[in-house]
């Protein structure tokens, strides 16, 4: 086993981290790489796959028709990876595993974000429905065809198990590295969805100041920068919101990790360790309820969502009526999983524009 990353992890990782040397391996065994750990290889395989590239043209919350400032599914993914690495490094967890988990976490999103997911779930209701979390597993285990030795990306069992935990919330204890990504995802969308809505003019900053978390973040910013206004103030408040939430997560995680019962066993800790303190969690719920009502249900957003859902329904019906319209790979796939599931998987892999272009 290569000494470089093994020894490095021994020096850097906390006792409760997941060391690469303890990985349960891959479905299809492979020899060790001379200078990359198993989780480094996972990260690289995800970054280089076609599904990851397509995230650049997939909706996060707002479509490209509304401008070019707001997040895409790819930029959201990279921001989550950045926040998760920060948490992981501060807690001395396995950053390579965290990054791989962050990069895969939204890999299965269809075009048009959650509107697309709702449409495909409806189209496939007689076939078990559609979940972007589970579709990510289908992508990395079956749909990506990059290597002659095996189907999919042959990722480590730890990365697959982490994504499986996202797909099935009833899953048992999960590694701290998995929990870190979930926490970072929450910080990202609570902060950035509001930022995007402000830039697009769907919200005003004074409306957000009715929320205690935003109001306190602005107060902290004003203490340091009394003269900020407009875009500068907004960006400073967003930064403060993110720093504050990350610090809160770290403080709570360190407190919980002092308790020996919170240390991971074979599959992870018996309880969720990477989570906000109760006061922060309550304030985050207020933000999420506000975003749900004022942003995700904004008439302009809803109108776009409904058009997107209609388009996917039309494409799905057309593919069922004429399966020959499917690319050859998915025509073959239909023999194994059925026409409906193959059509749904194909549509889920498309970018927004590709979904709009089709017949």
Structural classification: mainly alpha
Shape: flat
Mean pLDDT value: 92
| Helical content (DSSP H or I, runs of 4+) | 55-70%
Overall CATH class? Mainly Alpha
Total helical elements: 17
User: Cα-atom Rg, whole angstroms?
Assistant: 21 Å
What is the CATH architecture term? Orthogonal Bundle
> Uncertain segments of ≥5 residues (pLDDT<50)?
none
> N- to C-terminal separation?
52 Å
- CATH topology, anyone? Hypothetical protein af1432
By CATH, the superfamily comes out as: Hypothetical protein af1432
Major β-sheet annotation: none
The total tally of domains equals: 1
H and E order: HHHHHHHHHHHHHHHHH
Q: What is the count of β-strands? A: 0
What fraction of the residues are assigned to beta strands by DSSP? under 5%
What are the defining features of this structure?
Hypothetical protein af1432, mainly alpha, 17 helices, 0% strand, 359 residues
Describe this protein's structure.
This protein has 359 residues and is mostly helical. The protein has one domain: Hypothetical protein af1432 (Orthogonal Bundle), CATH 1.10.3210. The chain contains 17 helices and no strands. Helix 5 packs across helix 8, helix 7 packs antiparallel against helix 8 and helix 15 packs across helix 16. The longest helix is centred in the last third of the chain and has 28 residues. The protein starts with a helix and ends with a helix. The mean pLDDT is 92.
């Amino acid at each position: 086993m290569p000494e470089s990353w093994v020894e490095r992890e021994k020096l850097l990782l906390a006792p409760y981290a997941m060391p690469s040397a303890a990985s349960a391996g891959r479905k299809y065994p492979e020899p060790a790489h001379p200078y990359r750990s198993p989780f480094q290889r996972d990260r690289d395989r995800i970054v280089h796959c076609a599904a990851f590239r397509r995230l650049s043209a997939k909706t996060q919350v707002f479509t490209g028709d509304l401008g070019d400032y707001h997040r895409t599914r790819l930029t959201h993914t990279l921001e989550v990876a950045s926040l998760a690495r920060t948490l992981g490094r501060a807690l001395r967890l396995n950053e390579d595993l965290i990054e791989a988990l962050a990069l895969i976490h939204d890999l299965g999103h269809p075009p048009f974000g959650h509107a697309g997911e709702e449409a495909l779930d409806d189209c496939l209701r007689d076939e078990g429905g559609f979940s972007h979390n589970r579709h990510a597993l289908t992508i990395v285990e079956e749909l990506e065809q990059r290597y002659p030795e095996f189907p999919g990306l042959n990722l480590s069992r730890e990365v697959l198990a982490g994504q499986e935990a996202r797909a099935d919330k009833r899953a048992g204890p999960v590694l701290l590295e998995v929990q870190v990504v979930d926490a970072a995802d929450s910080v990202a969308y609570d902060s950035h969805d509001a930022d995007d809505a402000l830039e697009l003019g769907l919200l005003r900053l004074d409306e957000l100041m009715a929320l205690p978390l935003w109001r306190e973040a602005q107060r902290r910013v004003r203490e340091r920068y009394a003269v900020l206004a407009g875009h500068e103030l907004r960006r400073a408040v967003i930064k403060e919101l993110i720093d504050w939430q990350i610090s809160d997560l770290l403080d709570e995680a360190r407190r919980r990790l002092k308790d020996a019962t919170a240390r991971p066993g074979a599959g992870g800790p018996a309880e969720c360790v990477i989570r906000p303190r109760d006061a922060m969690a309550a304030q985050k719920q207020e933000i999420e309820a506000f975003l749900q009502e004022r942003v995700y249900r904004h008439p302009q957003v809803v109108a776009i969502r409904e058009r997107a859902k209609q388009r996917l329904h039309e494409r799905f019906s057309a593919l069922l009526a004429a399966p020959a319209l499917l690319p050859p790979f998915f025509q073959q796939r239909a023999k194994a999983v059925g026409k409906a599931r193959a059509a749904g998987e194909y549509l889920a892999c498309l970018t927004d524009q590709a979904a709009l272009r089709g017949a």
